[in-house]
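Good morning,

Attaching, inline, the backbone tokens for the sequence recovery test we're adding to the shared suite. The designed sequence is right after.
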């Protein structure tokens, strides 16, 4: 009996921490429906609602890499507009912000290859081209994938829509030109990464506009 009581006492701080997180992080509210569904399907490994909500968040986070390994829209967290090929899909074409759905859909769908780390788009004739930029302040452009920089998806902790940054091998992040750029037609570039809550360097993947 004493051993059981000791185990219960040992777990109490963990339960309190989970409940505290639920109170101070509003994004957790989004997980309520998910955790309820998990519990209903017997997929939650614990009957504690707080634990189930955390598990739901972990499952959502685990899907980010899986989702980004297929062609999807990449939306900017400041404007909600989409990363778009500024052209017909040829080598050298730049990248810009456009309203999602405002152009040929293939020009607004990208894939982050989980093996090569290349950010791929289907160019004219459905040829795979890659998004690249070599240095600080350089505009984003399309290049043959063998010549393109690699990218790493760095997910922000506890955010809606699983937002995150795309950081290249030079430790620069994909963003919008100017301060909190949001206008249609604004070109995209790479600059020093800003790891903050409100930045135009933060993106999220979406299936539709």
């Amino acid at each position: 009996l004493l051993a059981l009581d000791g185990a219960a006492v040992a777990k109490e701080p963990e339960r309190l921490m989970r409940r505290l997180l639920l109170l101070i992080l509003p994004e957790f509210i989004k997980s309520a429906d998910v955790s309820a569904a998990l519990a209903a399907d017997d997929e939650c490994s614990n009957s504690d609602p707080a634990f189930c909500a955390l598990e739901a968040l972990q499952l959502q986070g685990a899907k980010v890499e899986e989702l980004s390994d297929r062609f999807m829209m990449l939306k900017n967290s400041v404007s909600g507009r989409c990363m778009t090929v500024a052209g017909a899909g040829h080598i050298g074409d730049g990248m810009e912000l456009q309203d999602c759905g405002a152009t040929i859909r293939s020009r607004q769908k990208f894939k982050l290859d989980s093996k090569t780390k290349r950010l791929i788009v289907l160019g004219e004739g459905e040829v795979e081209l890659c998004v690249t930029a070599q240095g600080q302040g350089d505009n984003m452009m399309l290049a043959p994938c063998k010549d393109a920089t690699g990218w790493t998806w760095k997910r922000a902790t506890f955010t809606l829509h699983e937002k995150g940054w795309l950081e290249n091998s030079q430790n620069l992040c994909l963003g919008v030109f100017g301060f909190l750029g949001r206008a249609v037609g604004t070109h995209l570039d790479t600059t020093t990464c800003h790891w903050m809550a409100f930045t135009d360097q933060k993106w999220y993947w979406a299936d539709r506009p």
